[in-house]
């Protein structure tokens, strides 16, 4: 059975979440950064993504994002790199 997160892990997670202020449904087709989470912790995807209305997609390939997206923000780098 997994252990509950330590206080430090919980604080680190909240710090990362605070950096992704997107709320509600994101605008369609706009480049965004995604924060995902797995059994190890949170991580930012290294490529731009966009919301299709049903799924998050890799903006470069069009592939659906299969990870657990926990937060989003408008893309900081407008060139999409």
Q: Would you kindly provide a written description of the structure presented here, covering whatever features stand out?
A:
There is one protein chain. By secondary structure, the protein is α+β, with helices and mostly antiparallel strands. It has one domain (7-74). It is built from 1 helix and 5 strands. The protein has one helix spanning 7-18, and strands spanning 32-37, 42-44, 49-51, 56-58, 68-74. The strands form 2 sheets. It has a 3-stranded antiparallel beta sheet, with helices on one face. The chain has a two-stranded antiparallel ribbon with strand order 3-4. It is elongated.
Going across the biggest sheet, name each strand in turn. Answer: 2-1-5
Give the mean pLDDT.
86
> What multimeric state do the chains show?
single chain
- Overall morphology: elongated
Number of domains: 1
Largest sheet: 3 strands, antiparallel
| Annotation, overall tally of beta strands | 5
How much of the residues is beta strand, in percent?
Answer: 25-35%
């Amino acid at each position: 059975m997994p252990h509950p997160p330590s206080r430090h892990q919980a604080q680190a997670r909240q710090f990362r979440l605070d950096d992704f202020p997107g709320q509600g449904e994101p605008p369609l087709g706009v480049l965004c950064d995604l924060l995902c989470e797995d059994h190890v912790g949170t991580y930012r995807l290294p490529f731009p993504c966009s919301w299709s209305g049903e799924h998050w997609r890799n903006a470069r390939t069009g592939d659906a994002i299969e990870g657990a997206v926990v937060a989003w923000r408008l893309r900081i780098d407008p060139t999409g790199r």
